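Sample intake sheet
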Amino acid sequence: GTHSKYVLDVALLKVSCPPMKNLLLFLCAITLIACSKTTAPVEDPFDADHSAITDPKARWEAYGADDYVISQFIGCYCIERGPWYLRYTNGVLADVKDSVTNATIEPSDWPTSTVSIPELFVRADSTTYTTKPHILRVTYDPRYGYPTDIYIDYNESISDDEFHFTTRLVR
């Protein structure tokens, strides 16, 4: 039947055309290799749970996330307040969107007062200031460890020098 015809055809290739058989075997091998390769799914670093790490900065760093999106609002007596969606790629600001309209903001118009998550940790650390702030209040995300709210009043006797950063991880 059909099976014997197939065997006969392969036998004919073997007898009459050895280079063709080699080509056929090569093509079959390439096809099998190509079909057997699967791409590993890209793992989302935020799927892990490092909430048992007590130090917030160490907890954030355990996620190893250099690519993330945050929404950020800055409460201050300044022009640039937000809120914005900030996309970081390899730790560098790559895209800014108005979080109300979702409109992309041109790089030349990006707000200069926004800060990345690593920069938030610097702002949250009282030892990084030349003069210790009058008030420094920080709230950290319980799962991911990044500062969600930072309130800074630099000087008790100066009004309007306060900053309040509100940050949420979008992914």
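Comment: Residues 18-36 form the longest helix (19 residues). Confidence is low (pLDDT under 50) at residues 2-15.
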